[in-house]
TrEMBL record, chain A:
Belongs to the VPS29 family. It comes from Rhodosorus marinus. Residues 23-158 form the Calcineurin-like phosphoesterase domain. It holds the Pfam family Metallophos_2. This is Vacuolar protein sorting-associated protein 29. It comes from the Eukaryota.
UniProtKB/TrEMBL annotation, chain B:
GO terms for biological process: intracellular protein transport. Belongs to the VPS26 family. This is Vacuolar protein sorting-associated protein 26. PANTHER family: VACUOLAR PROTEIN SORTING 26 RELATED.
TrEMBL record, chain C:
InterPro entries: Vps35, Vps35_C. Plays a role in vesicular protein sorting. Pfam families: Vps35 (PF03635). This is Vacuolar protein sorting-associated protein 35. It comes from Rhodosorus marinus. Its main location: membrane. It is found in: Membrane. Keywords: Membrane, Protein transport, Transport. It is a peripheral membrane protein. The keyword RNA-binding does not apply.
């Protein structure tokens, strides 16, 4: 069992002063083995925080980051390949077809991406996954009318099986809602014949 | 010895033995010679005017006959000077004739009694002098044959009333600027199974001054460092030290119980002998200023104590002293001797 | 020596063991007299002159062996007495015949203990008598152990409060008397040795400390000891002895004992007594230790429950400390390092934080104490060496005088300056501490504790002495502390509701904001990236790392893997860069001020933003690079939520200012502004075109890094597309031309190709409509750029990019792009790869091509358009 934290778009301190406290209390060192960050940390301190959380920290470049990180990364965990890309550079931004193409191009089972500020996941008809951790600080886009709930994903990987948990901070500061986002055996056939998925 | 002689056929042809009246009921006193020579003896105890009576048995060996010029018994009180037998003194001598001259065969018993006989002194057994009371039976022999004699010691002790005046002994002594102590014995007169209680109070101790490093007390060893006080008032002595600050590091303190025996009739060479009856450590280590050390000395721990004898028949005296001794690091001894008077109490009255 | 000692010890113990059977035989036979004799012999071992060489520890072992035997003897005496065989009273006399005092007293205590066991009524008499007799042993070691034996034997027999108050008081009297005597002996042990042995003696005394302290423990455990008894009887005597013994180790240790063994309530009730005693202690006492012992104890107590906390507060604990502690500190100041004095206050602070979570004024008072202490002790001659020297030469005015000079020059020239000669600095009573000096570290610790406990910035702003406090720190530390003031706020509540508070905050964090003078010029490229490039971690020549997928397989086999990059970063970090980073972190904290502003009223927020902007700008423009972005974003948000062109203008003013110092961010904010302007609509729409144009200007004039150019252009492309519908078609058209032109003018063919692929976006979207011809045109230009690339390998990559982009466009409905020529790119690429050696890179690329092809083959329509032939 490998626990993977998928997190991104924090914008600390540009848009938000910091990770919400309930998240900080939840995320303690020693439990998580990988941190996969979709970018836009915006400050070195957040990276340092991640490095305290886990040994394996992978970060890609977000549009508001100083340039410190690669644009894309492929990380193998257990028997799965995870692709990490912030997504602002994939046009049209947030487009599923474009992201599917990126996933195929990178040759990964699961593409983790930020930018679009979506929360959740989609599955393409090949069985590949695109997952969106959302913004861990609830950073809004400049023209959002409401601020999104802070969120991140925690993925338990076992072989080719993943169980993903979505953590959402609702009601502002205190309540953490965690829900099983999906549970499935990632089974991709590039031949294009989708296999039945176990939910 | 009798038995040994008899082996060679030289033994006395008769045996003499005593049986004192009421011997079973009498207290016995253990007499220990002070120099630890000789044997410890258990002697029946008599009071000042107690009658001494009993029976003497003379046994002549079976089939023999003993010719005598008479049998008599004496009650003798002597003071014996051990260094000079010639000066022995008999201060009491009473004689009773027990038998006419004649022949004794078999066993013959004689009763005797010395009624109301004055026994002025206590039995005493010292280093140079002994005071004894004894019964002596003499079977007188004709011509040149030696008389048969046999002595039998008794002991005599007088009890005294508790002295009316019994002040405490209190002194302040010391070495100027170095040591200054006060001591205090609760009384000056103790009965022989009494407890000496008291205090030693260290008024000043210079033992850890930082001014000099040497433990330099310029006092010749053994020399008197404390002097007696006048009438118990403070006298501080007196070895002014030309080197300035002197210090003393006391290792321990003890009390010696001493007996001083002076023997010899007035006008002759008096033989003085002092012996230490007991040593009793009262303090271990070096005290600092204002320490108060308790003294509790049980005299009953010492068997051979007698009352103080000022002058017994003008021949000898026995006095007792408490000697407070401080021993320093270099085993030098500083002492202060104080006489105490011992008296013998009636056991009934002190129980 | 040590071997000799252990021999002496084991000899003594074995002599004791040898006598053991004798003792037992005698006791079994009922010969108590013989038992006494043997016991005396056993106890006499403790008196043996030989044992004088033993350390207290070794002596203790012998003591244990002796007391074990004596206990057995004592038990037999008790049993025999109960059976009617022995008169313990007689025995009590008889053992006193013993000639030597130490064994005599051991026996006496043993029998005395038996006497009490058999005849409880005698307990007080016996205790008192034994206590009196014990003073006969004046040798410190022997005396201490003897009295310990006494205490041990009596411990379970002490008459306590169950009988009567009077008796309890007498019992306490006995224990205290023994304690006093033990302490005196313990102290004497120190003076009893030659000076060269002092250290060893102190160590040995520490080993013995428990013997002395156990008496205090005994008292604390007596039933019936209440506060009034403690306050009126016990504590005064204890303190009297502790103070009057005039010895530092004893004072230190025993005070700690008192603090540890008695209940907290007692301490609360007797604080004044304790603190008064502190002030009378000897100069060698570790003042901090005793104070910390007390305050830590009370802190723990207060944090245990609200009731406890209330008790501490009801006793006016802080007031008492505040009344006494400064006096104590003042008295000790000449003998103790300043650090320790400060630490004493740190302990007090811990208590304040634990017991008075709401009393910022108390915290403030402690800060004031710290500053006062520094003022009072400054220049005094208690220097302990170099540390203090540095303190005195790093004077405040120096830095002010050398405007803009770099600190390194400072140390050289200041050495010539005599301490305190700094002229007009006299008005400023306190000199600045040296950076990282021990004192400063304590102060930082102090303020960290405050911040840790008081997360709310409005609380922190209540500290009136904060400014005086940080003024004594060295400038780097001052900066650090100012950053901490902002940093450790866990929740950024919007707590600043008026201008005054904001101004005040600016004052508090002034060292952080204003410290622009010694900043070096910021390199355009982040130093870390430079490092990265130098180390070859980022290979600019390889398209694989820029904008392209990094196939895992390829990565594993050559070069550092991407996950290893961070270690390269920290490895290559120089001191200078580390400082730079720290400074950056501080500046980012300044940026956080924005999050503290109350946003309930847009008008006021608008003013706040203005104030911040002015303050930041005044402070040093170089820092704007880091301080401004948060403010800009906040202003844009304000403009959006308030729908206010006025606010938008203010934001633009800021962005404009940012251009010079952080062009990348400025460019991005221009793009953000277009979105805001679009949302606001109305007159604000005018800014849409303006901002994109500004972004293009910035790209052209200020952004020099080629990678950044490409990235920026991608963003411009996507933003232009997004807002394109809100501007006039002609404007859009002209913008599109500019963007395509910028793309085709990028430095490398590779970047051109990527940018032109991206540019297709401009002409195929929902916002501005679809124009297949322009799309095809763009792709054609991209292909041209790709064809112009020299490296065959790189070319295959770009072909694949174009192929993928085409596929996507096709899926988005732009059927026109799917042409045979594009389909052929795959075949060409394969051929190119075949010409290259079988390296892992080639292998990975081949796989990538295969994936792209496979996908296309799966779609019959695509297959047809691309003229791809499915493999058999």
């Amino acid at each position: 069992m490998v626990l993977v934290l998928v997190i991104g778009d924090l914008f600390v301190p540009i848009k938000k002063p910091g990770l919400p406290n309930p998240f900080k209390q939840l995320l303690v060192p020693g439990k998580i083995s990988h941190v996969l960050c979709t970018g836009n940390l915006c400050g070195k301190e957040t990276e340092e925080y991640f490095r305290e959380l886990a040994d394996q920290v992978h970060i890609v470049q977000g549009d508001m980051d100083e340039y410190l990180y690669p644009e894309r990364l492929v990380i193998s965990i257990e028997s799965l390949k995870f692709g990490l890309c912030h997504g602002h550079q994939i046009l049209p931004v947030g487009n599923r077809a474009a992201l599917n193409a990126l996933r195929r191009d990178m040759g990964v089972d699961v593409l983790l991406t930020g930018s679009a500020m979506k929360i959740g996941y989609v599955q393409d008809d090949l069985g590949g996954l695109i997952m969106y951790p959302g913004s861990a600080t609830g950073a809004p886009k400049v023209d959002d009318t409401t601020e999104p709930d802070p969120s991140f994903l925690l993925i338990d990987v076992q072989g080719r099986k993943i169980v993903a948990f979505l953590y959402l901070l609702v009601d502002g500061v205190s309540a953490i809602k965690s829900q099983v986002l999906l549970q499935c055996l990632v089974d991709i056939f590039f031949s294009g014949v989708p296999r039945s998925l176990c939910a | 010895m009798d038995a040994a002689l008899s082996l060679f056929g030289l033994a006395q042809p008769c045996q003499i033995s005593f049986a004192l009246d009421g011997a079973q009921n009498r207290p016995y006193v253990k007499v220990v010679p002070p120099n630890a020579k000789g044997e410890e003896k258990q002697l029946p105890l008599y009071g000042h005017r107690d009658s001494v009576s009993g029976k003497v048995t003379v046994s002549v060996k079976e089939g023999k006959a003993l010719q005598t010029l008479g049998v008599r018994i004496e009650f003798v009180g002597t003071i014996e000077l051990l260094y000079d037998r010639d000066q022995n003194q008999e201060f009491v001598s009473l004689i009773r004739e027990l038998d006419e001259p004649g022949v004794i065969t078999g066993t013959k018993q004689y009763a005797f009694a010395f009624s109301d006989v004055e026994k002025a002194f206590d039995t005493y057994s010292g280093l140079n002098v002994q005071l004894r009371y004894f019964l002596r039976v003499t079977i007188q022999r004709p011509h040149t044959s030696p008389d048969f004699k046999k002595e039998f010691d008794i002991s005599v002790q007088h009890t005294q009333p508790e002295p009316e005046i019994n002040n405490s002994i209190r002194m302040e002594v010391g070495i100027e600027d170095v040591l200054h102590i006060e001591f205090d014995y609760d009384r000056s007169k103790y009965h022989t199974t009494d407890v000496v209680r008291g205090w030693i109070y260290f008024v000043l101790v210079r033992n850890q001054s930082s001014q000099t490093t040497a433990w330099d007390l310029r006092l010749p060893q053994g020399k008197l460092a404390f002097s007696p006080s006048n009438a118990g008032l403070r006298t501080v002595i007196c070895y002014s030290d030309s080197f300035g600050k002197a210090k003393i590091k006391i290792k321990r303190m003890e009390i010696e119980l001493k007996r001083k025996e002076s023997a010899g009739p007035a006008g002759t060479n008096v033989h003085n002998e002092t012996d230490t009856i007991g040593k009793f450590e009262v303090m271990d280590g070096a005290p600092v200023r204002s320490e108060k050390i308790p003294i509790r000395l049980f005299l009953s721990a010492y068997d051979s104590l007698t009352p103080t004898y000022r002058s017994v028949n003008n021949i000898f005296s026995v006095r007792y002293f408490l000697n407070l001794v401080l021993v320093d690091d270099a085993d030098r001894r500083y002492f202060k001797q104080t006489e105490i008077t011992l008296w013998r109490a009636d056991p009934e009255s002190i129980a | 020596m040590a071997a000799g000692e252990s021999l002496v010890r084991s000899d003594a113990i074995s002599r004791i063991r040898v006598k053991r059977p004798l003792l037992h035989r005698a006791l079994d036979a009922g010969k108590i007299d013989v038992g006494v004799k043997v016991s005396v012999e056993i106890a006499a071992e403790l008196n043996a002159p030989k044992l004088q060489v033993l350390s207290p520890k070794d002596y203790y072992e012998v003591y244990l062996a002796v007391s074990e035997e004596l206990q057995i003897f004592g038990n037999v005496v008790v049993a025999s007495a109960r059976a009617g065989g022995t008169s313990v009273v007689d025995l009590y006399e008889k053992v006193q015949y013993t000639e030597h005092v130490t064994p005599r007293l051991y026996l006496l205590i043993t029998i005395g203990s038996a006497l009490v066991t058999t005849k409880q009524t005698l307990v007080e008499e016996v205790m008192s008598d034994l206590l009196t007799m014990c003073s006969a042993v004046q040798n410190p070691i022997r005396g201490l152990f003897l009295r310990n034996y006494y205490a041990q034997c009596m411990k379970d027999k002490l008459p306590d409060g169950e009988r009567s108050r009077e008796q309890l008081e007498r019992t306490i009297g006995f224990v205290l008397e023994n304690f006093t005597a033990m302490n005196r002996l313990w102290v004497r042990l120190q003076y009893d040795c030659p000076p060269e042995m002092n250290k060893l003696r102190t160590k040995q005394r520490r080993e013995l400390s428990l013997l002395v302290g156990s008496s205090i423990m005994t008292i604390s455990k007596l039933r019936g000891v209440d506060l009034s008894l403690y306050k009126t009887l016990i504590l005064p005597q204890l303190l009297d002895q502790i103070v009057s013994c005039k010895e530092s180790l004893a004072q230190e240790y025993l005070m700690e004992c008192i603090v540890q063994v008695f209940p907290d309530e007692h301490h609360i009730g007797t604080l004044e007594e304790l603190l008064t005693a502190f002030s009378k202690f000897e100069k060698g006492v570790d003042l901090r230790l005793v104070i910390a012992a007390l305050t830590d104890r009370l802190s723990r107590f207060a944090s245990n429950s609200p009731e406890n906390c209330e008790a501490v507060r009801n006793a006016r604990t802080f007031d008492v400390f505040a009344a006494y502690l400064p006096e104590v500190v003042k008295k000790f100041a000449p003998f103790i390092q300043r650090t320790e004095l400060l630490r004493a206050y740190a302990s007090l602070l811990r208590l304040v934080l634990a017991a008075y979570p709401d009393r910022m004024d108390f915290v403030d008072q402690v800060l004031c104490f710290c500053v006062t202490t520094l003022q009072a002790t400054e220049g005094s001659s208690i220097t302990t060496g170099a540390e203090d020297m540095i303190t005195t030469i790093t004077s405040d005015e120096f830095f002010e005088g050398d405007d803009g000079e770099i600190a390194e020059n400072a140390s050289a020239s200041t050495t010539a300056k005599a301490p305190g000669s700094g002229g007009d600095a006299s008005s400023e009573a306190v000199q600045e501490l040296a950076e990282c000096s021990a004192e400063e570290n304590v102060l930082v610790q102090v303020i960290s504790m405050v911040f840790e406990a008081h997360k709310d910035i409005s609380d922190r702003l209540k500290l009136r002495h904060f400014m005086a406090f940080i003024r004594v720190l060295s400038s780097p530390t001052r900066r650090k502390v100012a950053a901490m003031l902002l940093e450790s706020i866990s929740e950024y509540k919007q707590c600043i509701q008026d201008e005054t508070t904001l101004e005040k905050l600016f004052v508090y964090v002034d060292p952080l904001i204003s410290d622009g003078s010694i900043r070096k010029k910021q390199p355009l490229v982040h130093p870390l990236l430079e490092k990265l490039v130098d180390n070859g971690a980022l290979d600019r020549e390889s398209p694989m790392t820029i904008g392209q997928a990094v196939p895992r397989e390829a990565h594993d086999m050559e070069g550092p893997s991407s996950s290893a990059q961070p270690s390269v970063l920290s490895f290559g970090q120089t001191q200078e860069q580390a400082e730079e980073l720290e400074m950056d972190a501080g500046q980012q904290q300044v940026g956080r001020i924005v999050h503290l502003l109350d946003s309930s009223s847009p008008e006021r927020l608008f003013v706040f933003h203005r104030m911040c902007f002015d303050r930041f700008r005044k402070a040093g423009e170089k820092n704007l690079r880091l301080t401004l972005p948060s403010l800009v974003f906040a202003s844009l948000r304000l403009a959006f939520t308030w729908m206010s062109p006025k606010a938008l203008e203010q934001a633009l003013e800021m962005i404009n200012c940012l251009e010079e110092f952080n062009p990348e961010k400025a460019l991005r904010f221009y793009l953000e502004t277009t979105k805001t302007a679009k949302s606001i609509g109305g007159s604000a729409r005018a800014y849409i075109l303006h901002c994109i144009e500004r972004a293009l200007v910035v790209l052209e004039t200020r952004i020099v890094n080629s990678r950044e150019q490409l990235r920026s252009l991608t963003l411009i492309t996507s933003t232009t597309t997004a807002v394109g519908g809100s501007m006039a078609a002609v404007d859009y058209e002209s913008l599109c031309q500019s963007v395509v032109k910028a793309g085709s003018q990028l430095l490398t063919r590779r970047d051109q190709c990527t940018a032109l692929c991206d540019a297709t976006e401009l002409f195929w979207n929902d916002e501005t409509g679809n124009d297949a011809i322009r799309v095809v045109q763009c792709l054609g230009m991209a292909l041209d750029s790709a064809n112009a690339v020299v490296s065959g390998f790189e070319r295959t990559f770009l072909y694949c990019d174009i192929f993928n982009r085409t596929t996507t466009l096709f899926e988005l409905g732009c059927n026109e792009v799917a042409r045979k020529e594009v389909g052929q790119l795959l075949a060409i690429s394969k051929n190119l790869l075949d010409e290259m050696g079988p390296t892992s890179k080639v292998h990975a690329t081949r796989k990538r091509l295969a994936r792209a092809e496979k996908y296309a083959l799966n779609n019959p329509e695509l297959c047809r358009s691309f003229a791809l032939i499915a493999p058999q």
